[in-house]
Model the fold of this input.
Amino acid sequence: MAKFLKISLIILLSLCGVAATLILTFFIITKDARLDESKLLNPNRNILIYDKDGNEITSANTSGNHTTVSLEALEKHTINAFIASEDRTFYSHNGLNYKRMLKAFYKNIVSRSFKEGASTISQQLIKNTHLSQEKTIKRKLNEIKLTLQLEKRYSKDEILEMYLNTIYFGHSCYGLQSASEFYFDKTADKLTLTESATLVGLLSSPNNYSPFKNAEKCLQRRNLVLNAMLECNFIDEATCKTAKNQPINAIQTNKTGRNADYLNGIFDELEEINTDFYNLKNGCKIYTYLDTELQNFIENIDYSYDNSVVITSDGGVNAYKSSINGAKRQPGSTIKPLLVYAPALEEKILSPFTKILDEKVNYSGYSPENFDKKYHGYVSVTDSIKNSYNVPAVKTLNTLTVKTAEKYLTKMNIALEDDEKNLALALGGMKYGLSLKNLTDMYSVFPAGGAYTPSRFIKKIVAPNGKTIFENVQHPSKVFSEGTCSLMNEILTETAKNGTAKKLSGLSLNVAAKTGTCGNSEGNTDAYSICYTSDHSIGVWLGDKANKRTKVSGGNDCCTIAKDILSKLYRNRKPEKLDTQSGTSAVNIDAEEYYENNKIILADPACPKLNLLKVKTLRGNEPKETSDRFSSPSIPAPTVSVKNNAVNIELCHAKYYAYIIKRHSNGKIKTIYDGKWQKCITDSPPEGYYTYTVTPYFLDGDKKIYGQEITLPAINLNKNNTSPQVKIPDMANKNWFDL
Done:
């Protein structure tokens, strides 16, 4: 018994020692942590923003420009939405939820990470106003200490009110009042149940769940919040069901003023690059790629529809305007080069001159049509792209497979949903679509020789102490080979000259382009012109933010704007020509076989120049078969007949051949014709038995290259003309025993 007590005492003292050590460690680590009331009530973040030349363009005050809201003024359902989703035991704990903390601690130990945070509303307020977002033990201990101090000094309602006035909702909106005005054009005290749930749903990732960028994901998040309110008995099942059936109804209230859209892009990007936008201290400097003159130019263009414009160069956004807050839209035909044709070129499935039969097709009930409701027979890949034919694109994707096409989209940071993986993708049939910036970045892969680099608004961020806390140093991912990009540059340059983007053809500079229009006979919803030079990529979108039908088109309206921008960009200089040679091979194919028989065959070495067609293909994807029709002339067998005591020999047409026709009789041979093709050669010999031979030849300069001599059936020419062809006995089948 004494031994047991002794062991128990040792264990108890050890535990006390460990506890004392942990407590001492806690106080040592957190000794500098102090609760600052001014940060809670007025988290001053006056940020200085500079353009590409280092000129200050604005100071963005993230606290002083929005009106705070009083908790008493808010509807009960608004408060309950935050409580149910963010911290259900907010009014009963002392700032820390120990049960959740232990659960999170266990999960972090198992996963060997700091994925689980278990933060209460009080902890989030401290983290957002006093600390960084980094996941370290020291930061967490400081958070615990300051949270306990917060709970002692302020009431629960005061804490919740300060939280609601400092939380970030995306699109540079800090605080509930600012978010209410931006998303729904109303003050926070007038928010409905569904609107409140929508705003709460944004908190975990405002950029990802924005109703303007990902409407369906936003709807899913809102409904999760409504479910949480139901679980907490804040609403009943009937109310929850009714609320879920309501649309988002976000209004997209644009912030006005010069550079407003560009500034929105900066704040959206802060979350995208995982920069702590809560920790942007007073005096923080953000350096951007903004070209102020170019930005002013696109802001002052007269737009007849809702619009977006993005201009990039060297991995940076030089100018940006969007009346739809960067929302994702259906890309239409602009996806064809990226998803279908460039991957098919890379996989060596086709070449720019490959012909595809444009015809009515049906793939398990999916039957695409061309925009003009016509079919155009055999068309080359180049013509299919520049005229934006739909059927060849779908046919190509079917051969390529969606799985292979998806591989290339993944390299450009585009992930497909399972229900998007079908042939309609070839025509831009996507569930969520793409933002104009995404689309423009993807096209920049072609002038970059196949390297994909997403463009950034932010060049670098410098803290008040001079330390660089972010710098745009990216590592491009290789998507396509230089050869594929050279071929696409040439095809899309042709599209800008003679295709759907031919409005750009009047420019005296080397530009490539692709257009796209989404709609039907009732009108269009989205129209695009994506164009690029060796220096810039430009995206233009026009349409209606509410998806109403318009008369807008990519080849007309969007190209007109793109042309004005290009004229502005290159008013004093011209860009270098796009690379159309690297990684390619130029080969000669047989023109007659190509145009008349839709066959791609390397030209015979003896082929005349008039029958040579020089084409360009990806290096390593040259045609394998070589024609020998000039070095070894060959023709179908001519027909022979007798009419009016004359022998008629009909020749099949062969454009480049000449013929020697000889008459054979009783060991004598006479040439009756030697010359170019004629449909019928007539010979009038005396009565008798005759055999004719025909030999095609090709005249290569002074040299005759002969083909195989063809012997025609024998002819018996007599006065009655009753037996024009000699009948040869069937010796093998004759019954010799009946003689």
Notes: The CA atoms of residues 659 and 696 lie 5 Å apart. The chain has 22 helices and 25 strands. Residues 111-116, 731-739 have pLDDT under 50 and may be disordered.
